[in-house]
Amino acid sequence: MIMGYRNLSTGRCGKSVCERGFSAIEMLITLALLTVVLGVVVKGIIELQARNFNENGKVDAVQETRDFIDQMTRDIHGTGYPPPEATTLGTTKCTDKLGNIYPAVRNSPKVACGIVSFSPTRVTYEADLDGTGTVSVVYLQLVTPAGSTNCPCQLQRGSVTKTAWIANNNITPSYFTTVNGVLNSGDGTGLSGGIPTGLGAPTYPISMSGPGSYASYGTADVFTGYNASGVPITAACSLTTNPDCSQIRSLQITANVAPPYYDVVTKVFPVYSITSKARINF
Prior knowledge:
282 residues
């Protein structure tokens, strides 16, 4: 017998036994265990990534809403400045009590006529936004997504100089500030046969994926006007209606916003309600 090897029949280690590797069963068991471990690790990574997306979506939704509302609040404080009273055009109003326009004042690029139109989903106002003497016409509106009549909707803010508006009062502004995921559109009083009439707030249906009920968030007006006594304005108005929008002395904005990602556990979209009210100083 050669030293260093054992014979298999005597219980000693022979060459054929010492060089033997893992059996097929041992390999299968090892692979199964590795698969289970890797599955747990991958699942944890996917859930962590989903939670990260979810948290980022929440932060972005709240932040862009606050930025929009803060900007609107700053604008509203200065709406109507510089007023007609600051000019030498012979009158202190853009229109008379019957809604007749004073063209010399209304069409002056140096005069801000305040809120010129209002509804619960759309507001247009004039103001010197940066104190440079350039009057801007600012448009705020709630719109449904392209190709859809359902919310989540989008809040938009755009502006043009009043000089550009005078040259073309049908000008379409560029809406460069937006809030996505807005659920509320009003109490439905502005619908006639399912078509918005402009006399109130149309309530758009809410279409959200996954479980959860969101209808209760949809009935709040986006914009609410109040008179000097704090009484809500119940009808849409414009510069030429009687009464006109000069009755509005403060403006409130309400946004019920859902982020783009739902909770990874409940599959429900969290909704954040943000409201701000600003007084018109001029």
